[in-house]
Design goal:
The chain has helices at about 1-20, 25-40, 45-60. It is mainly alpha-helical. It is flat and about 35 Å long.
Length: about 60
């Protein structure tokens, strides 16, 4: 659960930065949000969740 909240928070921050800088329009962000909701309700949701969790595990295991 903590990973999901962290990823969502990161994506919200990136979206806000892109909107404020002018490189992402509000309508584009809205379409991306709707796509995310559609993907969350699809049969791909568990696969995407597992992929994000595996990527987070790999990134957290990397030592600088």
């Amino acid at each position: 659960m903590a990973i999901s909240i962290s990823v969502v928070l990161l994506l919200v921050i990136l979206t806000l930065v892109f909107i404020r800088s002018g490189s992402l329009k509000f309508t584009h962000a809205l379409v991306c949000t709707l796509l995310g909701f559609c993907l969350a309700g699809s049969s791909l949701a568990p696969t995407l969740s597992n992929g994000i969790a595996a990527t987070a595990d790999v990134v957290s295991s990397v030592r600088p």
